Amino acid sequence: MVIFSVAGKDLLRFLGDRRALVVSLALPLVLTFIMGLSFGGGLFGKSGISAIKIALVAEGIPELLRDRFTEGLEESGFFSVSWVDSNAADFLVRNGEVSAAVVLPDDFLRQALSFEEIPILIWKDPGSSLKAGIVEEVLSRGLREYQAGEAAYLGLWPEDAAAAGDSSAVDLVEKYFEGAFSTLWQSWREVENDSSWAEFQERTARIMDRQVALVEALGQPGIELEVQDKVSDQDVSQSEDINLFNYFLPTFAVFFLMFGVAGATGDFHRERKMGTLQRQLMSPLRALEFVLGKWLSASLQGSLQLMVLFLGGAILFQVNLGPDPWSLPLAIVLTCTAATGFFLLLTLLCRDEKMADNLKTIVVLISAMLGGNMVPVDSLPPWISAVGQFFFNYWANLSFSHILVSNRNIFEEPQPLLILFGATIGLLGASLIVFILRQRRGGLL
Amino acid sequence: MIQVENLAKKFGSLRAVDGISFQVERGVLFGLLGPNGAGKTTTINVLSTLLPPDEGKVTIGGYEVRLDPAAVRRLIGIVPQEIALYQDLAARDNLLFWGRLYGLAGKDLGRRVDELLELADLHQQAKQKVETFSGGMKRRLNLVAGLVHSPEILYLDEPTVGIDAQARSRILEMIRELSNRGMTVIYTTHYLEEAEQLCDRIGVIDKGRMVALGDKEQLIDQVGDQDIIRLHLPQDAHKEFMEDFAESTDCLGVRIFRGKIEVCTVDGARMLPGIQAWLSSRNLDLQQLEVERPNLETLYLNLTGRDLRE
How would you classify residue A115: left for phi > 0, otherwise alpha for psi between -120 and 50, otherwise beta? Predict the structure, then answer.
């Protein structure tokens, strides 16, 4: 069929064009990789979405130390922390009022000063394991930094501060440990009298910038985090861990797809400029065959782009590819056919390449914003969310969310796919009508 | 084979083609001659079904373009003015693609493509991308791409624009060869020498109108037995020269064109001594003089008062 000849020729050109391959496949993959990595540090903090609520159980711990602990957690930008007792924490976790509770042992101080292992518990709601995972990650990192910082402080700074006549640092440390510091400090004094003190100090200074090594050098106690599930009394629909990238990868991918397909459909104006469009129109090729051929090739290019991104996401970031082998490919294909129909229509409505490029850039950005590719749809005001439903990407995001985040078979909730299918047919039909009208008016020359 | 009756095509208020008529018999190489913007390409676009005519009737091989464009498209091959090829594809891939559009496939298509690459003398560069070709090579490939389905009629729209003399000569040779094989060819150009050299019949088009039509010899005969004498004189002598020679019995007309004086005369040789005497009496040096026998350019000048390359 001639449609396949037109599409095959375009694909051949696409695959032979290194620049197009880099822009359509390699670049989105690299950007996705960077974005994937960035999720390890500060997604919510960066996006301004409300902080994760956690409870802190720190009974039997001096208030100053408890304040410091709270401050450290809140400084991370992830959490909103409240002090509670263990019973209240248990209740709050079970009722989903907080995503997790951090439980410090009652004899935290004693364990710390006697160089014992300190067990810190994280109680989490299994239905909110994603957020609890973030708590665990941030806490363990923060604790390591805290340990190292405190160790350095204990080992070196108080002496320097005292020598300089500033006792506030020493006072602060003493307050942290409520007098236990003096015992600890005495042990350092004894070392100071030893002839090897200078050598020890030098060695300590050398490894100061390596925080974990410093912890070992100063013999600080290790801290072990243990995560415990507190099964909610309410119905927990989501019991498996969620990879946050399951949600964000499709939104990035659809965003890149929009640019890719906008570029691919722009080939219509480039062909017009080259004269190859006119040459095709002077052949027995019919308008329908030309439009379908162009649509098919751009859809295939888009599908290739999405497949590469999803496979990349699965390999690099363990993104879920859905519960079965057909849901995701079907969603990819329908997303691409609808996207191609949309941008093909826009292209055909534009007088020339420049006008088309400008319009498409604006439309991509607006539809990305309204359809949920920049900010999650849930966080948009309802009226914007309602407007977003007129954009194909809204339904594409929704279908990917069903498959990747909820791990549902696409046929369980077919509405997004049906809408994408309908949009494809409608947009393709409209593109064909515009093409024929332009052809009749000589507007393709 | 081709019949055009009172064809008109408007773009807004501009009548790009304004009621032209001509016919081309089978196997004839017909030249459509005119300056840029005369309406040649618009005529070709209508003849190739790319533009619908606003008025008039165009019949190609018995099919009317307005009523049966698909049948017309199967009969014709087009070589557009621009290099309408995929620069990022190999020469062979380009020809394969154009062949498929005409329903060719498999071995037949492969064989035909090989023949055309041979004809264009590009068989050794078949797998090279077109963007690596010289201007002449691209023009040759552009030409054979219009032949892939062995059309009965070939439209060539200024196929030698922007190439050197050697490449042009090769293209003209190919066109002559096609014509000798019995193909009907419509050739548009603003190069008079090409039209004179190649075409059996010529239509001269200007501002959308057909100002002359006929066999090459007939058209030149219309000009009559006239010579053009061109003189390069100091500018302050132009007015006096024109006044003195306008009344001369041998002079059919005199004008200034591109800084030179042009004298149209029935016999250049008879007029030259008089010009020489006029120059000597005024102590003027003749900076340049040439005498030209009648040709299509003379015809065009006579018909429109303008040079084809204006």
Answer: left
Are A97 and A233 contacting, i.e. CB atoms less than 8 angstroms apart? no
Q: Which residues contact A419 (CB under 8 A, 6 or more apart)?
A: A395
Instruction: Report the alpha-carbon distance of residue A286 to residue B71 in Å, rounded.
Output: 12
Domain A52-218 -> CATH class = alpha beta
Alpha-carbon distance of A289 to A435, in angstroms, equals: 11
Shortest CA distance from B155: residue in chain A = A282
CATH 3.40.1710 residue ranges for chain A: 52-218
Residues 6+ apart with CB under 8 A from A290: A6, A280, A281, A435
The one-character DSSP state at B83 is -
pLDDT at B85: 95
Report the candidate in B25, B34, B18 with the shortest Cα–Cα distance to residue B296.
B34
Query: Would an 8 Å CB–CB cutoff place A15 in contact with chain B?
Result: no
Question: Tens of pLDDT along A357-389?
Answer: 999 999 999 999 888 888 766 666 778 878 888
- Residues 121..160 of B with a Cβ closer than 8 Å to A: which? 129, 145
Q: How far apart are alpha carbons B231 and B238 in whole angstroms? A: 10
Residues A282/B157, Cβ–Cβ less than 8 Å: no
pLDDT of residue B232: 86
CA pair distance A110, B167, nearest whole angstrom: 95
The residue assigned the tokens 């994280």 is A122
- CA A141, distance to chain mean position in Å, is 19
- Nearest chain A residue to B12 by CA distance is A441
Note the ipTM here: 0.78
Give the pLDDT confidence score for residue A9 in this predicted structure.
93
